[in-house]
């Protein structure tokens, strides 16, 4: 079993974070909300700028690094529910000061954002989960030398509201990554800019996690789905089956029904055994106190996945808010210490935590 060293960086209640080299010194830093924390010790704290506080939330549900303006410095892609606007924050570089915030598009309320290089250009496209609007992605416009220009091209691939939930998976095995929504999946055509994408209404995942994960859980060669309930109890996987005519059906399997508000999930090889673990936890006060299980203890977990599709739960942290940490709406997994093991940065209304992965303790570190 893995061992983790827990450290609280801040009591600030931002629910998103990222890890990247903010100041160009070659050392990863941590970004969360209005601040960035300078590596390698993350003690020195630098201001990014004001982030609106609205009704118990902050208007910042993503902190993703992308060099938008082509100056060689990573900027931040963000957006949230209340502002209804996809935005980027310009990295000011060595001069410091507040990061200018620039609107990309008023696209509607954003649950959170995920990123995928859908066209193989080497730069990820931006996919906001906008439950009330059709699914779209935003492509960074680059100049002749490949540098970002600060402009984006919007491509609307859906025709009806997306619903709560978003993920990426090659559902049909054609080698192209499809977009999974709570009520079905959008099949990527040969040209991803050919719109709209065909919609396959094959399941109903409820108020699903972001992301919904695509993974062959049982090793049968078909892509299955791993889904958390973002505003209720339940973590499940949906087994893809096909009959002799190639028709798909989906069989639901429970992973963990003991906790609620599994809003963000990751598949990552935490123990370096060559197989990914499922990492997730509770988003503390996801709808403030309005969700089932809102007043339960919070926790952060990883699940080992067996060859037969069984999930075994391992607790990283668990307890009352203020003592334990959840996973926020946008947590990050990356090796911060250089020991090879991925660490976990967990934001949320319970504060900002780092869980240093110490390995298995069996002499393999």
UniProtKB/TrEMBL annotation:
On whether tRNA-binding is a keyword of this UniProt record, the answer is no
| Entry-linked SUPFAM superfamilies | Integrin alpha N-terminal domain
- Is Cytoplasm there in the keyword field? no
Record InterPro entries: FG-GAP, Integrin_alpha_N
In Swiss-Prot or TrEMBL terms, this protein is called VCBS repeat-containing protein
> Which keywords accompany this UniProt record?
Signal
Parts forming coiled coils: none
């Amino acid at each position: 079993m893995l061992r983790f060293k827990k450290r609280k960086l801040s009591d600030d209640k931002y629910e998103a974070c990222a890890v990247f080299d903010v100041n160009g010194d070659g050392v990863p830093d941590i970004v969360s909300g209005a601040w960035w924390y300078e590596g390698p010790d993350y003690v020195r704290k630098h201001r990014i700028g004001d982030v609106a506080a609205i009704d118990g939330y902050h208007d910042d549900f993503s902190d993703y690094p992308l060099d938008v303006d082509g100056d060689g410095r990573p900027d931040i892609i963000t957006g949230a529910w209340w502002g209804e606007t996809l935005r980027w924050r310009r990295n000011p570089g060595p001069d410091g000061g507040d990061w200018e915030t620039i609107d990309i598009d008023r696209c509607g309320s954003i649950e959170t954002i995920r990123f995928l290089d859908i066209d193989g250009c080497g730069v990820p496209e931006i996919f906001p989960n906008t439950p009330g609007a059709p699914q779209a992605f935003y492509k960074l416009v680059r100049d002749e030398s490949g540098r970002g220009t600060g402009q984006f091209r919007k491509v609307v691939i859906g025709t009806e509201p997306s619903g709560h939930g978003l993920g990426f998976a090659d559902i049909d095995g054609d080698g192209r990554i499809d977009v999974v929504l709570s009520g079905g999946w959008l099949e990527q055509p040969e040209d991803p800019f050919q719109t709209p994408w065909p919609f396959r209404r094959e399941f109903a995942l409820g108020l699903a996690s972001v992301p919904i994960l695509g993974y062959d859980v049982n090793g049968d060669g078909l892509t299955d789905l791993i889904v958390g309930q973002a505003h209720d109890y339940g973590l499940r996987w949906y087994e893809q089956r096909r009959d002799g005519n190639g028709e798909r059906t989906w069989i639901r399997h429970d992973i963990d029904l003991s906790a609620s508000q599994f809003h963000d999930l990751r598949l990552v090889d935490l123990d370096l055994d060559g197989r990914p673990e499922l990492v997730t936890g509770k988003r503390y006060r996801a709808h403030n106190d309005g969700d089932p299980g809102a007043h339960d203890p919070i926790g952060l977990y990883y699940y080992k996945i067996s060859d037969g599709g069984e999930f075994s739960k391992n607790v990283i942290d668990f307890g009352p808010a203020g003592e334990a940490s959840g996973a926020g709406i946008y947590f990050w997994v990356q090796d911060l210490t250089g020991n090879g093991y991925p660490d976990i940065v967990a934001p949320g209304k319970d504060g900002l935590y780092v869980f240093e992965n110490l390995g298995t303790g069996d002499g393999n570190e």
